[in-house]
Each structure stands twice: as structure tokens, then as C-alpha cells.
Amino acid sequence: MTTTNHAVVLAARPNGAPVESDFRVEQRPIPPLAPGQILCRNLFISLDAGFRNWMDEDSGDNVLPAMPLGEPVMGLTLSQVMESQHPDYQPGEYLMARFAWEEHTVTDAGDFISRLPSKPRDPLSHYLGVLGDTGLSAYFGLTDHGRVQTGETVLVSAAAGAVGSIAGQIARIHGARAVGIASGAEKCAQLIDVLGYDAAVDRTQADIDAAIERACPNGVDVYFDNVGGPLLEHVLDQINEDARILLCGAVASYSATEPLPGPRNLFQLTTKHASMHGFMTHLQLPRYDEARDVLGGWIDAGRITVPEHRLEGIDNVGRAFCDLFRGANFGKSVVAL
Amino acid sequence: MTTTNHAVVLAARPNGAPVESDFRVEQRPIPPLAPGQILCRNLFISLDAGFRNWMDEDSGDNVLPAMPLGEPVMGLTLSQVMESQHPDYQPGEYLMARFAWEEHTVTDAGDFISRLPSKPRDPLSHYLGVLGDTGLSAYFGLTDHGRVQTGETVLVSAAAGAVGSIAGQIARIHGARAVGIASGAEKCAQLIDVLGYDAAVDRTQADIDAAIERACPNGVDVYFDNVGGPLLEHVLDQINEDARILLCGAVASYSATEPLPGPRNLFQLTTKHASMHGFMTHLQLPRYDEARDVLGGWIDAGRITVPEHRLEGIDNVGRAFCDLFRGANFGKSVVAL
Fold this sequence. Notes:
homodimer; alpha/beta; Quinone Oxidoreductase, Chain A, domain 1; Rossmann fold; 2 domains; 15 strands; globular
């Protein structure tokens, strides 16, 4: 049995965007298994910007508790059971879990664990991305709240990210014109060339209103917002009647040291009889298998391309997390251990 | 036939909240009827804060054009056909119309006119209030988007206004706890004593967060917002999971000279998987009769009290409009001509 374990601990609370020195790799013993516990090997660590929130002393929400300093950082993993003293789990089984950034985890199995299908698809890392919370956020967001119709314009922020890279492709499958927002000319070109977006808006250019208008000449029917913050005000000015705004992520605010200003033109929702929907994808867990079948079918048919930003080894987990905040990833970020 | 007409013209564009000198009564001739036109006597003028928007040179929306200076102010009226050269309209018929603030109107009949039911309820002025756009805003907002459930808490801003005075009562009929926000102790007492609100929040007190928390100990499930502006940020901090926010009016911003700051905590919608809905009630015109039957039944059964702020005569129309912005009305504001 394995006896050594490496974990990434929270060395310092990030001040604004996280930097690599906020994290430190430590060797930690693996405790012996108690009755009811399982020992897992973590095969992949998922990097998700939202976890930045709980690195603050006071996250301002009650979704998860604040992470303690000097302790392993909490995250999402794809893991395999190695030893089990719990009747419901057998060695060899694959799990998705809210485990720490570490090579091995010993835990009382709880509701922060879900199982992979008995015949998982290949590669397994997709269960942290297109077939996991991020891909399913794109799917449920557009299906449940977006109700995308043929010919509509779907605008996606952080369009090269884990959620956005899938959202644009799903929008196109529904017959919509997909427009992606990303930072820099190179990423914008990739949105079109790799992900099939119909048009791209470079977030770094001076006149963002004009850029959105050029890319969305018929206005915006659905805005799939992964960044939050000031961009929303610009988009609200260009929504169509009955528009739907999906608030999925807020990467712009996770590392803000002050609350970002809110949109001053929310009344656009009234005059355009539009709506805004927040959603937490993990609440749809009972529907994951159904959604995975649909997404898997699209992947098999070559209708969805799945970009992955993959690094290797526990030493690179902190860096991969920081990459999210400097926009260095294209697609879902994972670290293979 | 009547030959003189008095109209209220826009004497000056209001700077912030409107004042009485922004309006002036003028005598104007009644033009002769051309083929296809009707002459109406305006029995009641409805005062609606939203029309403040179109008194600016640039309203910032495209719902209606800006009102010209020196011309009669545009509004909503309850009118009776006196003469008709239009095949679809007969003398004696009652109409609701987007007519000017004047005693008589000559017009080509268009889609800015709707008919009262053939056997209208008494008093007729209710068709501008509880059975008109404001009461139906309360009804459709809570029914279509609010989906109020027994035991939920429904918080209503501008709770003594035309919409709010009805919204709270409908919320209670659905079995919800209704909490109203209004300015001043006297109005707050009336919310409870006259309109049957379960609790009231005085908008003028220093710690509005604590006041909302005291009045809504179980959090806010539905927020029916008639004022817009900074209050929304305070309410967002106290919404429950799956909360619904209904953006009906924005009286706080209609007369603001600068855009008001937006809520900095919109991400509460995501963590609480809540939603926000803008709506324009006049788009539901085909359902008005159905909704009036329901509301009329509640009035007949004594389940809804209908307060009205009624003034008399064309000379008082400007004053009645200004009353809306100083919160002088309790219930729907109308002027009987």
C-alpha cells in the first residue's frame, strides 16, 4: 500500500488574482483506514476558478466554508478507490469528488462524492470537463434557462474557458449564431478556428460596445456569462426583447479585492421583458447521466470538439490554477497526477 | 358638440423629479373629425411614474418617443367615444387609450387603444388601476414569474403604490407572507392596517438591512420591485434559494439625472440559483379579460381592497403626477375630469 502523499496546501490567502507562491506542496502521511472510510488515488485534479472564493477568509457566501491556511486546498478530483472499508464502495471504482489537491485521499464517503457511469467514456478526464460540472453547466444553462432557438444570437463570455468552449458549440448545434468573447487576437482566432464560433469579440479592445455590435448585428438573444463584472452592463445595452441572461460564473469578481460595480442599466430587463438566471449545476446531479448521453453522442458524431489544458504532476497544480486567472488556458484545465 | 378643450402641455423638461411648473394648462381647439377618426371625452387620466422617462429629451429606451416640449403630455386615459367616423367604434363605447392629458381627444384609432368589456364593472376608474396595467402587472408578475407558493415571503417595494398596493394582497391570497416597503411610519402603518400586509419596512430608517431582516425572518422568496435603484442590492443579500425577483418599475431611476449604481452582488443570483424577470404588462393584452375576472372576483369577495388617490379636474393633473414622486399617493393615482 502507498504510504506517502503529496498535497498542495494554501500557503497564503491570495490578494486579488492568485499567484504561485500562494500554494506550497507538502508531503503528508496517509492515515490508516477507519471503518466506513475509503482510500482513493486522485488521477486528475480539476481547476475551477470558482474555488478562489473560498480561499478568502470570508468568502461572502455560504456555499462552502473558507479554506484553512496551511491545509490542503479543496477542489474537484477524478479519483479511483484503492481500498475500502465502506460497504458501498469497491476498489477500482471511479469517483468524482470534492477532495483536496493531493495525490491520495482518505475520507468518510459522503454526499460530496458521485460515481462515474459503470462503463465510463474515454478519456476519463472528460468527466471533469465536458461531461462534468463545466460541460453540464453549458448544457443545462442553455437548455433549461437559455431555451435557444434557431437563428438566435448566443453571446458567450470567457468563451475559451471550460464552460464557454462547450457553450458556443452547443449553441451552434441548436442552430444559433454563436459569438464568443475572449482576450486577445490569438484566442479570438482560436474561438473561430477551433471551436467553430461564428464571430469573436476581443475583450481587450477599446470600444467594447462597438465590437459587440459588429459581432452581433441582430442583437443578443442569450448571454451566457462566465465572467460577471462590468461586461454585463455593455451586453445589457444590446439585448433583444425576451432575451435570457445566464449567470454561470463570475471569474472577474472571484479575485476582486473590492466588489465590482453592478450594471446601471438593469431596467433593460424590464423594457425588453428579458430575464436573468443564476444556476448551480451540481444541483442537477440526478440528470447528469441523461445529459452525458447527449453530450457524448455529440462528441462521437464530431459535433463537439473538446479542448483541454492539461498539465502533469502535483507540482503543477498551483500553476494550473493561476493560469485560469491570466487566461492561459484554452478549454478545461486539469492536472494529471 | 363640444368645441373647447383643455390640455396639459409639457412646459419644461423635468430636471430630476418633476415639479408642477413643468406642466401648464392650455386651451386648444378641437379639430374637426376626418374620415376614420373618433372624438373621445377623457373621463379619467391615469398617473404613471414610468411616463417620466419620455419627458427627457433622450429617454434612453425605444419604447415610446420623447415627448415634444409645448405639446400635450402623453399618458393613459379612460375615455368614452362621443363621435365616430370609424366603422369599428360607436358613440358611448368606453376605451382605455394612450391619449394625452386633455379633456377631449381626436385620433385615428390605432393599436394604442383597447376596449373595456361590454359590461364594465363599477367604478370605471378601476380599469386604470386594479383592472388596468398596474393591477394586472401585480397579477401577471406574481402569477407568471413569481409563482408564489404558500408560506413563502413576498417583499414588495413601493408597497403603497398602484402596483404594490395590489401585489401584497395577491401574495396573501396565494398564502404568502407579504412584506411591504414604503417611506415613513404613517405609510407603513397603512400598509398593515389598510392593505393587510403582514409586516412593513420603513425605507427611511438608517439600517435598511436590519429592517428587512426583521420583517423577513425567513428570507425573501419573491421580491416585487417597483422602485429599482440601490434597494435591490440590500434585498439581494437576503434572498433565499430559488428566489424570484420581479422588475416591474423603477421609480427611483425615472427621475435620476445620473444612472443609479447597479447591485454589486448580482452573483447572489448564481449562488442562490435565483432569477430576475423584467416584464411589460401591456404585452399580455389578450389575457386581460381572464385576469380581470379573477381580480374582480377577489374584489367582490372582499379579498382585495382598492385604494385610490383621486383628484379632480384638468388643473390638478400635473400636481397628481408630481405626487407620485413625493410618495403622496396611497394606491392608484387618477384624475377625474
